[in-house]
Amino acid sequence: MGDGFGTVSTTAFFIEDGDRFVPTEAAGGYWRPNTLGGRFVGGLLGLGLERAYGASDLVPARLCVDLIKMAPKAPLQVATQIIRQGRRLLLAEAQLIADGDVVARANCLYLRETENPDSPTPQSPSWRVPSPHDLLPQPDRGHWEIRPIPADRREAHDTPRRRLAGEGDAPSSAANPPVLGPLSPFEARQAWVRETRPLVEGQAHTPFTRVALAADFASPMAHSSLGSIDYVNTDFTVYMHRLPATEWLGFDMVRHHALAGVAVGECWLHDEMGPVGTINVAAVAQRQA
Questions:
Q1: Are 103 and 96 in contact (CB under 8 A)?
Q2: What is the 3-state secondary structure (H, E, C) of 127-140?
Q3: N- to C-terminal Cα separation, the chain
Q4: How many other C-beta atoms can be found within 10 angstroms of the C-beta atom of residue 274?
Q5: Which residues contact 81 (CB under 8 A, 6 or more apart)?
């Protein structure tokens, strides 16, 4: 199928060649020419970890990706190792290597499934927003399909997300171009996201690789003004109590705080069945090269 509204592209982000992953043109980064976007880095690291250690009774409860440097748009390798393995947990690490140089790393904490206590702790409610199938498609942005949740249909938060005077106003002439498209204002920023391309040619997404590939989206969600993105994230950490059961992932932007060019952000992660976990990101002010 083509790249129109609501369709899936057959062009993958990488082609697997022996023990190397060769980027295609679709995997280009935003910040600098001939580099990879952070989400493609996360996707490859997640794929390597899942191939080595994924198991049906292990929940990847935490995935932390460190974006050590901008990964080149060049053949890449993934090396993995176990840090700690016990009866109830497995902690593993992956490194993304370009020409012998480690450009990113990740660690994943797997927890073995068991049973909830007899006296369960009350669970936080799911968000109450429209299904992605009830929202209008947006133009394909090449990497994913985004369906923003309109401000008048969003869920009201118990803690209002206040904004400072002038925050979110029209960007200055020095601002970077936006990457999100027509999302809602900061105080009502929620969206459904769906992958429209395979990560690796000939291989279908798994629930874990969907999250690993999409989690970097939390940075522009949390750190974008209404008309620009002026922070580049240095990491992202995903906490999950379960893997997603649907291809649509819901991002609910909860917090952004910044001072002296250093920012942190948080999004809650959902699928069509309910809550999945949270994503936290750290970022620094950045001008596009």
A1: yes
A2: CCCCCHHHCCCCCC
A3: 33
A4: 15
A5: 92, 93
- What distance in Å separates the CA atoms of residue 54 and residue 213, rounded to the nearest whole number? 16
* 39 found inside a domain: yes
* CATH number assigned to the domain comprising residue 54: 2.40.160.210
Helices (H), 215-277: 218-223
pLDDT digits (tens, 9 = 90+) for 11-38: 899 999 999 999 999 898 887 889 999 9
Look at residue 171 and tell me if it is in a domain: yes
Residue 205 has a CB neighbour count (10 Å cut-off) of 19
Q: Which long-range contacts (CB under 8 A, 24 or more apart) does 157-160 make?
A: 157/254, 160/187
Q: Evaluate whether residue 224 is within a structural domain.
A: yes
Band the pLDDT of 160: cuts 50, 70, 90: very low
pLDDT recorded at residue 141: 58
Could you give the CA distance from residue 106 to residue 193 in angstroms, rounded to a whole number?
A: 23
